[in-house]
Design goal:
about 150 residues; five-stranded mixed sheet; 4 helices; globular; disordered N terminus
């Protein structure tokens, strides 16, 4: 018999597809489980990057941050793995918001063939990362409800 699920407070989340030249940003919520690409930040330095992020956080007021966790296809870390982890840790340290990590191995590859996505590829990748987060969140909640 399934246990009734407790009411869960909706989550507004902001996701990031981190890159050394550009950072894609998306926002969404756990009610619709959909993400919306916001922008791709091409900041010349980390101060400018975090200033842009601070403005987005003030506007959207998320209570959860999500960062793509890049790895090789076999799951092994590579040079961007440590950089993305550092970026996520900096987000947490600067803005005191929880950071969740989502496997982003194939997000850009899924979108690269779509001509409509090319102009804002990184923000659309962040959207896929965010939707994967909501999917995993759903799976975890359903597993707990069945226990």
């Amino acid at each position: 018999m399934l246990k009734p699920m407790a009411l869960i407070t909706p989550i507004t989340a902001m996701a990031f597809d981190y890159g050394t030249r550009r950072v894609g940003v998306a926002v969404g919520n756990s009610v619709t489980k959909a993400g919306e690409p916001l922008k791709t930040i091409a900041a010349p330095n980390s101060d400018t990057l975090f200033k842009d992020i601070e403005q987005l956080l003030a506007e959207w007021q998320p209570n959860q941050l999500v960062v793509g966790h890049p790895t090789h296809p076999d799951g092994a870390p590579h040079e961007m793995t440590a950089k993305a982890i550092r970026f996520g840790n900096q987000l947490h340290g600067r803005f005191q918001l929880p950071v969740a990590w989502v496997d982003e191995r194939y997000t850009s590859a899924v979108l690269e063939g779509d001509a409509q996505m090319r102009d804002n590829l990184d923000a659309h990748s962040a959207t896929l990362i965010l939707e994967q987060y909501f999917s995993e969140l759903d799976t975890n909640l359903n597993t707990k409800a069945a226990d």
